[in-house]
Amino acid sequence: MSNPPHVIIIGAGSTGSATAHDLALRGLSVTVVERGEIASGTTGRNHCLLHSGGRYCVNDKEGAIECIEENLILRRIMPHALEMNDGLFVALDDEDYAFQEDFLAGCEECHIPAREIPVKQALEIEPFLNPKIKAAVQVPDGVFEPWRFCTSFLATAKKNGATIRNFTEVSDLVFQGSAVAGIQVFDHRTGKTETIGADMVVNATGSWAGIIAEMAHVNVPVAPTAGVMVTIGTRLNNMVINRMHKPHDGDIVVPVRNTSIIGTTSWRVTSPDAIEIPQDQIDKMMHAGELLIPSIKAGRQRGVMAVARPLIASANVDARDFSRTFEAFNHRKQGGAAGIITISGGKTTTARGMAEKVSDVVCAELGISVECKTKTTPLVSYRDFYN
Ligand SMILES: Cc1cc2nc3c(=O)[nH]c(=O)nc-3n(C[C@H](O)[C@H](O)[C@H](O)COP(=O)(O)OP(=O)(O)OC[C@H]3O[C@@H](n4cnc5c(N)ncnc54)[C@H](O)[C@@H]3O)c2cc1C
Q1: pLDDT (tens digit per residue) in 129-150
Q2: In terms of pTM, does the model score above 0.85?
Q3: What residue numbers bound the domain in which 267 lies?
Q4: How far is C-alpha 362 from the geometric centre of its chain's CA atoms?
């Protein structure tokens, strides 16, 4: 083993970036390899919602608690990468209104600060909101900027000695006996193939995790689950607007810089690299968005995007109902190869918590006992990524 031990992280989305920071802060030697640009996977194309947990507090309490805990931590450690504009859950019809009781009880149970505000006040804050809403509840949702989110973690990791290599794709794993001992990469800038040795490899490739796992002859139950989002080229809301009911298609509009993003749908895909966007899903988004903010109808569609969530599959459960929680898979303990750990599931909002979990497993495997300090360590600015 090298001293300090060398850990390679595959993937520079939110999970890999946060893991690089955690392990570098614990004093390990870290190299991140990313096949494309930073955040070019799922992280760079999502709603950018810093979840309060409100969306999951009735049906997925574990996921909801993780969200609110991490939301509050990120507000402290990376305020420069966040817009802390809060969110509203609004009831549009009698069914939504009836859901409010369960919603408020769920928020309380998951420790999500929620307060009902008068409809008149909600409409003053959000003049484009459907004036027919029956109730509104305010929660600490927010908005992150994905590039800044990742580069804040990576800039801090670099400051602590990490090496970040983008446009460097893992084409195979290197073995010593039956254990993973490094990676083979193709550098898209130089056109060269090389091998890099490691004491441990972290598979943080999100929806692509199954492909890397296959190279290690192990299995991970990752179920790439796609969602469509439509971006309106005008910012129509100040806060995140959610519909107050069980998560469903097209029930959220997130203000991101000068746009509003409507999301989303959910369906299983076989490859995260080949997601078709059906026109009927776009129409569905527009229709559902208009119910929340009627002037969406007159808005210009600036773009449509679809990416896959790296959710953990459960047997006999519909993709929409897969839990948003996360898991670190120690393949050695599951009877597979040593030297590689996969981290999957979760959300960008919970990236720091995911990093803590997988870094604990990495350190235990390497026989190192160092405490995680990422909850209280402020990140340097994303601007330092270039220094
Ligand atoms: C429609 C939709 C909306 C969402 N909205 C939100 C939201 O509003 N808020 C929120 O918190 N979460 C949201 N999520 C969830 C969130 O986007 C994901 O959980 C998160 O981005 C996953 O991050 P990751 O780092 O694990 O994966 P990724 O961001 O996909 O990163 C994995 C990286 O691995 C790289 N990679 C793959 N193969 C290789 C290889 N062979 N060699 C090197 N690199 C490789 C990829 O290029 C990629 O950059 C949403 C998800 C979807 C699908």
Answers
A1: 999 999 999 999 999 999 999 9
A2: yes
A3: 49-144+223-312
A4: 21
